[in-house]
Design a protein that fits this description.
single chain, alpha+beta, 6-stranded antiparallel beta sheet, 33% helix, flat
């Protein structure tokens, strides 16, 4: 007989089966209800638990100098906050109050400008308000400071336990400060958008491509799921040479301060490639300091003045209308040109009289140059202006910097009646000496660079390469604008004349006694538009444009200074800056033979300190000195061998010495600090040093027994 009573068990199972079936039907019904009637509601709830298409910003590319030094780079910055509500929910509010004195003291150590008491008061205010986003510090901080704050008590816990959280920003930093600031460019920090310079021109390349993620909330945490990874920006390698940039900036600022200038520009270009090695733009600010505010070098459309005379003389030489033996009468320095007086700078001293064509440039004679041009082109000014165009002065250089303006040089135009509708009788004479035109400094320099490059005009280059992950993805080769701006004979003649302008003419202060310099001075009154040239005091544009060394040009340079009032001299002011820049650049590349520095007092054999012979042997061999009984510099490291070095004639020899026992004070006279300290402290003697050089005195007598706790003072000299 079965021990189970079916009459009792079966009804129970039936009840359980019916209940479970009803539950299953209810679950199924609820599911159907959720999928139909409640669908919209639950979709709304789900949308609150996820975030779709969240952008992830890439790392912005770096801007590098020509030799790979960082000129602009992206670094993380943070703003830090406390969520006191999360802190309380996690149960750490009591611990926070207990630790608030330590936290406040730690914050005071990080930010000394605010006291620990102020930090404590500030944090307690946020705690009592149960703020979810209470700022710990109002300003952005760098990564190292952020890690210091994160190491404080309570704050070192996860943000879900401590409430400590932060916003991260992609900040732009320039390791060299303001060097080439307007050319490298700036960023609007808060918006993370480019503002000017190469940062703006190459923004799409530097910026990279945003990534896309979506975020799901799982158990109170958002998980990031990457849909499209961000693509970091590429680096751009500029042509800027940091040392030349620094040299040009210092030379220009020193002169601006000396003469109380308003604006200063200096550009250095490599002749063969057109690479811009330095570009400086300085404005005088209200506090009297000079800063880079605007890129005057590429955007200032000003009448260039006498530096334009070079182009005028080249045009007439190239047209074959005159040669370098041509003479012109300048009278007493004042010549009436169609009702207006043309004056030379020395007209009060009687002028220059009769000048040959080269001397009109050497003395920068307004009368001489304007009369030569007017006599040969007055009836056909179009031919002269076309000659200027052919020299490339009006070429659009396509400079990759926002704000660049190409030169504006007016072409004469005749109407249907054969009369000029944009020209006057005085236009040609004044255009020939640098008025009635608007040329930015970069265009003037490009023209002079072409002269230095034997007539080949190169496009100014600011960016050499675009690099991504160490690989060059774009190589920006030097570009030729014009293969030849003038005849070979014209280039040869003008290079000789420009060299004489510096050696014999008004450009002497730009020259150097170490190498030849060629160039042209310029002093022009600046127009104030409808107000004319004299309103509010006369302002001057002082310029010097040229190249060096003149016999084998490597670099061209232009310096432009704007100042109000006299004295004003392109050669005496801008020329001085040019001189300092040229000599500084050439000094960086100057290599002299050591034999040039030898005289009767020269010491040809070095003296070496007493001490470790292995180290001395290694150094002397590396410097090229022969050791008669050495090891050939083969053992820079190893157990020391103590002794002295003797010199006789042109030969050095090593003399091994005896080593004192470990319990005897050693004799360290004549040794360097490193060896002396080593020998003393190896024997347990504490050492203090006084002075520099080799040991002259030791406070403990050599040969005495060493006692515990001994201290020795070494006097070096």
């Amino acid at each position: 007989m079965s021990k189970f009573n079916n009459n009792k068990i079966i009804p129970r199972y039936s009840v359980i089966a019916i209940v479970m079936s009803l539950i299953a039907i209810a679950v199924l019904g609820k599911t159907v209800y959720t999928m139909t009637v409640g669908r919209n509601y639950w979709l709304e709830v789900a949308s609150l638990q996820k975030k779709d298409s969240v952008k992830v910003k890439p790392i912005r590319g770096n801007i590098l100098s020509c030799d790979g030094q960082l000129m602009a780079s992206s670094l993380p910055e943070f703003k830090v906050y406390m969520d006191f509500n999360t802190l309380k929910t996690a149960g750490n509010d009591t611990a926070f109050i207990d630790s608030i004195n330590y936290i406040s003291k730690g914050l005071n150590n990080i930010f000394p400008e605010k006291t620990a008491a102020d930090f404590k008061k500030h944090l307690l205010e946020g705690f009592h308000k149960m703020s979810k986003h209470w700022p710990i510090w109002d300003e952005r901080i760098d990564y190292n400071t952020f890690k210091e704050i994160q190491s404080l008590p309570i704050l070192h816990l996860s943000k879900y336990k401590s409430g400590f959280h932060w916003d991260e920003f992609n900040a732009r930093r320039r390791p060299f400060g303001s060097l080439a600031q307007r050319t490298v460019g700036d960023m609007f920090g808060a918006k993370d958008t480019a503002r000017c310079g190469l940062e703006l021109s190459y923004d799409s390349i530097l910026r990279g491509t945003d990534g896309i993620i979506h975020r799901r909330k799982v158990r109170n945490k958002f998980l990031n799921i990457t849909d499209t990874p961000p693509i970091d920006g590429a680096d751009i390698v500029t042509t800027i040479d940091v040392s030349m940039q620094d040299l040009a900036e210092r030379a220009l600022i020193d002169e601006l301060k000396e003469i109380n200038g308003n604006v200063g520009v200096a550009i250095v270009m490599e002749v063969a490639t057109g690479d811009v090695k330095a570009i400086v733009n300085m404005d005088k600010c209200e506090d009297g300091e000079y800063r880079e505010i605007k890129n005057h070098a590429v955007s200032d459309l000003l009448e260039p003045g006498s530096v334009f005379k070079t182009a005028s003389i080249m045009t007439i030489l190239d047209d074959g209308l005159v040669d370098t033996t041509y003479t012109i009468e300048t009278g007493g320095g004042v010549w009436n040109m169609y009702g207006r007086d043309m004056k030379d700078h020395n007209w009060r001293r009687g002028g220059y009289g009769t000048l040959t064509l080269p001397w009109t440039l050497k003395y920068s004679s307004n009368v001489g140059v304007s009369r030569i041009i007017d006599l040969h082109y007055h009836k056909n000014p179009e031919k002269f202006v076309q000659g200027i165009y052919d020299l490339g002065l009006a070429s659009d250089l396509h400079i990759p910097i926002v704000g660049y303006s190409p030169a504006k040089i007016r072409m004469p135009h005749r109407n249907s009646h054969g009369q000029y509708d944009n020209w006057s009788a005085t236009a040609l004479p004044w255009m020939s000496i640098g008025y009635e035109t608007q040329v930015p400094p970069i265009s003037t320099l490009t023209f002079y660079n072409a002269i230095a490059n034997n007539g080949k005009m190169m496009r100014p280059r600011f960016v050499k390469q675009i690099v991504k992950d160490g690989e060059v993805i774009y190589d920006n080769q030097p570009q030729v604008i014009k293969e030849r701006i003038a005849k070979e004979s014209t280039i040869k003649d003008i290079k000789r004349i420009l060299t004489e302008v510096v050696s014999e003419g008004l450009g002497k202060k730009a020259g150097s006694d170490k190498f030849l310099v060629a160039g042209k001075t310029g002093t022009a009154q600046m127009s104030k538009g409808a107000l004319g040239y004299k309103a509010g005091g006369t302002s001057y544009l002082l310029s010097f444009a040229g190249f060096f060394p003149a016999d084998n040009p490597r670099y061209s340079c232009i310096v432009c200074i704007q100042k109000t009032g006299l004295p004003a001299s392109g050669g005496g002011m801008s020329g001085v800056v040019f001189h300092h820049i040229a000599e500084g650049i050439m000094a960086q590349n100057l290599k002299l033979s050591v034999t040039d520095a030898r005289d009767s007092s020269s010491v040809l054999i070095p003296s070496a300190k007493t001490g470790n012979l292995l180290a001395s042997d290694y150094v002397l061999n590396a410097l090229g000195f022969r050791i008669a009984n050495g090891w050939g510099g083969a053992y820079p490291f190893g157990n020391p061998i103590w002794g002295t070095i003797n010199g006789k004639g042109n030969m050095l020899s090593l003399q091994k010495g005896s080593t004192s026992p470990a319990n005897i004070i050693p004799d360290v006279h004549g040794m360097g600090a490193r060896d002396a300290v080593y020998l003393m402290e190896k024997r347990g003697i504490k050492v203090s040093l006084r002075g520099r050089g080799r040991v002259l005195q030791q406070s403990l007598a050599p040969g005495d027994r060493i006692k515990s706790g001994m201290k020795c003072t070494l006097h070096l000299g």
